[in-house]
Design goal:
The chain is an alpha/beta fold. It has 10 helices and 6 strands. A 6-stranded parallel β-sheet has the order 2-1-3-4-5-6, with helices on both faces. The protein is elongated and about 65 Å long. It starts with a strand and ends with a helix. This is Response regulator transcription factor. InterPro entries: CheY-like_superfamily (IPR011006), Sig_transdc_resp-reg_C-effctor (IPR016032), Sig_transdc_resp-reg_receiver (IPR001789), Tscrpt_reg_LuxR_C (IPR000792), WalR-like (IPR039420).
Amino acid sequence: MIKLLLADDHHIVRSALAALLSLEPDLTVVAEVDRGDEVLAAARTARPDVAVLDVDMPGMDGLAAAAALREELPGVATLILTGHGKPGHLRRALAANVRGFLLKTAPPDELAAGIRKVAAGERVLDPKLALTAWDLADNPLTPRETDVLRLAAEGAEAPEIAERLHLSAGTVRNYLTAVVTKLNARNRTDAARIAQEAGWL
């Protein structure tokens, strides 16, 4: 019997998942949570074989929860189940050693099969997401441009960024101009959005 932990902040979705998966003869749901920051505590108590995690949850997102699980309970395999497969999410999932990444639009039998594969130590990736990952360009930003854009994304203005990174305000503005150009963005806010979605920030 494969023991499952389900984490999704939408009660209806989580309940439907639990009901569907419980119909499978070899799967049993041993814990359910609606917040990412509750995943680790629930896993410590329930000792699931597989944690099925949504990405967007309050407290902590599913990818951060997956990384925390890997750190403390490496025997728990993780499968991300998300409504949108953003490239940045996929990059973070791979970095967190997530074994599965499926869209919520996957048929129930595909999800059950994915859980079994993940429990057996295999990797599962939605084919559409695999194509997205394959098509992703490498990060065109230098480490310094990334530092500048990260601070700008947090709302810092050029003088503050300059002070924090020990640069001149003019140099910071030059970096931001280069970033906007490289990412073909409308402005620095748009550049930050593009970089975050691609997993570069």
